[in-house]
Amino acid sequence: MLLVEVDAPLEAPRYLGAPRTGGREAEVRPGLFTVNLDPAAVMDEYVRRVVRVDVLARRILDSPVYRRFFAAAPGLPELMMLGKIMVFEEARAARFSSRPRYDLIVVDAPSTGHGISFLKVPLAASRAAPAGPVGHNARRILALLQDPQRTALVIVAAPEEMAVVEAQELHRAALEELGMRPRALVLNQCHEARFSREQEADILRLAADAAAGRLARGVGLPAALAAARRHVRRRKLTQFYQGRLRRVLPLPMASLPYLFDEDIGPSSIERLARRIEAA
Question: Which among 172, 105, 111, 112 is positioned nearest to 145, based on CA atoms?
Fold first, then answer.
């Protein structure tokens, strides 16, 4: 399996107790590889592959005109990164083997607003360049994204108003504009019930009565009640948005708990993985 991150400031390997992998595929666990794509590095690699003559490629890469063009060309960084992901998907285990190098590739795409633009780039490029290598590669990328046998779009949201609205917009855009059918929904950072309904009622009553006292040494009752009341509120909001998403999005949903761990590490990831498997 390969986990592909797109210009991520904090790389996934740190959560697995492994060193940064950067722009090259690296095995961080047995059978698990990660890579963090840097747009400029991917573009440089593309130039070297196309030009092939090392001296000429270096002259192009060292040119300030090239750097300005890459920074200014709309959609070019996104197209290059999607092209690199396609290269990973088409890679084979050996030179004459039909077996893919990776049985599964998970792409941590940009968040919804940028993510929609990110996925629209191949469609726009294929229309803007009906001929030539750019248009040809854009159409190949588009075919990969729209093939349900090769690509499954999973929408990730949090139980908050803006995130839920964006999830609905991504679902609509995927179907109507991108030709992609979303396959699942992950609701992240869910505050799950820690108290019974009777305990929640007691918490709200005591907080409303401004109850005073001390629960333990250094732990005042007002502060504890405020924290408990916040949790009850977040739990109710989580339940509300879970119900709303189930009504408006016809997708199987996995709910992942909000982690209160001081440091997110391998054990935290294992807990989330078990929840996804159970869903």
Answer: 105
- Taking only the tens place, the pLDDT of each residue in 257-276 is 999 888 888 899 999 999 99
Q: Are residues 223 and 115 in the same domain?
A: no
pLDDT, tens digit, 9 for 90 and up, residues 157-203: 999 999 999 999 999 999 999 999 999 999 999 999 888 888 888 88
Which of 75, 94, 123 is at the close of a domain?
Answer: 123
pTM for this one? 0.85
pLDDT in tens, 61-86: 888 888 888 777 778 889 999 999 99
Residues 119 and 193 in one domain: no
Query: Which of the listed residues 123, 150, 172 is the one where a domain comes to its end?
Result: 123
Q: Which domain holds residue 67?
A: 1-123
**pLDDT for residue 257:** 95
Instruction: Let me know: does 146 contact 236? Beta carbons within 8 Å.
Output: no
- Cα distances from 216 to residues 137, 207, 223, in angstroms, run 65, 18, 12
Please tell me the total count of domains within the chain.
2
Identify whether 169 is part of a domain. no
